[in-house]
Design goal:
Blueprint: H1 2-14, H2 23-33, H3 35-47, H4 49-56, E1 61-71, E2 81-95, H5 97-164, H6 170-205, E3 213-215, H7 229-239, H8 241-262, E4 267-281, E5 289-302, H9 310-377, H10 382-416, H11 424-430, E6 433-437
Helix pairs in contact: 2-5, 3-5, 4-5, 5-6, 5-8, 5-10, 6-10, 7-9, 8-9, 9-10
Keywords: Cell outer membrane, Membrane, Signal, Transmembrane, Transmembrane beta strand, Transport
Signal peptide: 1-20
Family: Belongs to the outer membrane factor (OMF) (TC 1.B.17) family.
Length: 442
């Protein structure tokens, strides 16, 4: 009975469909699978320890020391002796502007590490989405070329039949054969692109690329909300991770200047100590043992008076570096402004391209149908049908590529505006992804 139960489970597993994944699933898988992203996560985790280390220099520092020593002089009649003891010392910084600057810099470094991690995460999402769309683009190209090959094959068979009965010339056969050969070349090229894209997707996510879910083509042009260029520019200046990283670099440089000036400030420490020392002379010479104990507490002040001009030189260096960081921040803001404008235009043009190509595909389909009908009644030649078929196939492939380029452009625009982390754009795109996988495609 038990064997029948396990046999039933095995047979059921054979009919269970593979786990299909959409773009959101691919993104989630990449977060756990991509080694580069995991390394960046550890780098951020390591950077977070800088604050703890910098704060430690502002807290009390205590140390324990112990010693044991035995002395045996070489001179005759000299007494040998031994000594041992221990000491405890504690130091507390009362004022050190340099250590305070280090502590503030460490907190900025943690925020900078978080920002850099966000940048790497956003780039991973763009890589995953681009690869996801590359797989679908190649698959659509294969589907289009398969349809072209089938159509050209029918044209070739028909041309040969008509030539055999003397109703057509050999030119029709050659034209159909040339179209079939061209479609075969396109098919091979698409197969290569599909294989490359699938391996890259597997590398990024660890998922089986054959289980990728396809796009509902009719929804692409309606799924994403429209915003003005001014909206995207405002969002970018406020939320861009690139700008945030440059702004944090400016803050770090400002703290470095404070640290440079702090080198001329006095440093004050509270110091306390306790020691216990024992000394024992040789018993052969009737030496006596001594025992010393004592405690001390005090305040130590130190202040540099002259350092050969090195401190002044260092101050000039960090002041120049601050100016450099400010210019880099200004350059980043201008670059983001230009990038947002370019990506916004890419989105606008992409949407227009999708709508225009949808209309072009419809027109070419009608043209192909008219050419096929015209051939049947003798008003169109085989060459007319072949050219119409090629034009229709080209429009079909262009439309498929335009749809994916439009979606990728929208993700790139969201990344420039610092909105990729929210997942809203990705959620909108996922609405256009169906539950059908490439495995189910004909």
């Amino acid at each position: 009975m038990k064997s029948l139960f396990y046999t039933g489970l095995f047979l059921l597993s054979l009919h269970t469909p593979a786990w299909a994944f959409d773009l959101q699933d691919a993104w989630n898988a990449a977060l756990n699978h991509d080694a580069g992203h995991t390394a960046n996560a550890y780098a951020r985790q390591a950077a977070q320890e800088q604050t703890t280390q910098a704060r430690a220099y502002l807290l009390p520092y205590a140390s324990l020391g112990a010693n044991y020593q035995r002395n045996k002089p070489l001179e005759p009649n000299a007494d040998s002796y031994s000594q041992h003891g221990y000491s405890v010392q504690a130091t507390q910084t009362l004022f050190d502007a340099g250590k305070l600057a280090d502590y503030r810099q460490s907190k900025i470094a943690v925020r900078l590490a978080d920002t850099q991690f966000d940048l790497s995460e956003q780039q991973l999402l763009l890589d995953v989405s681009q690869t996801y769309f590359d797989v679908l683009t190649a698959h659509d190209m294969i589907a289009a070329t398969n349809a072209s090959k089938a159509s050209y094959q029918r044209q070739l068979d028909q041309a040969k039949t008509m030539f055999d009965v003397g109703a057509a010339t050999i030119v029709d056969t050659h034209e159909a054969q040339a179209g079939l050969d061209a479609a075969q070349v396109q098919w091979l090229n698409a197969q290569h692109k599909l294989s490359v894209a699938q391996e890259k997707l597997r590398h990024l996510t660890g998922l089986n690329p054959e289980d990728i879910q396809v796009l509902q083509a009719g929804k692409v042009a309606q799924i994403l909300p429209l915003h003005t260029l001014a909206y995207w520019q405002e969002q970018a200046q406020a939320n861009s991770s690139n700008i945030a990283a440059k702004a944090l670099a400016v803050e770090q440089a400002q703290e470095t200047i404070k640290k440079a000036y702090a080198q001329m400030y006095p440093k004050i420490e509270l110091q306390a100590a306790y020691q216990d020392q024992h000394q024992q002379a040789s018993a052969a010479t009737l030496g006596q043992a001594t025992h010393n104990r004592g405690a001390s507490i005090g305040v130590q002040l130190s202040m540099p008076l002259y350092a050969g001009g090195g401190i002044s030189s260092y101050r000039r260096q960090v002041e120049s570096e601050l100016l450099q960081r400010k210019e880099e921040l200004l350059a980043a803001k201008r670059e983001i402004e230009l990038q947002v404008r370019e990506r916004y235009l890419n989105v606008q043009n992409g949407l227009a391209q999708v709508k225009a190509l949808e209309q072009l595909l419809l027109s070419n389909r009608k043209k192909l149908e008219s050419s096929q009908l015209g051939q049947q009644v003798g008003v169109r030649s085989n060459l007319d049908v072949v050219m119409a078929q090629q034009t229709y196939a080209d429009a079909e492939q262009q439309l498929a590529a335009a749809r994916y380029q439009y979606l990728q452009a929208q993700l790139a625009l969201a990344q420039s505006a610092g909105q990729l982390q929210s997942g809203a754009t990705l959620a909108h795109i996922n609405q256009a992804i169906s539950q059908q996988t490439l495995r189910k495609q004909p």
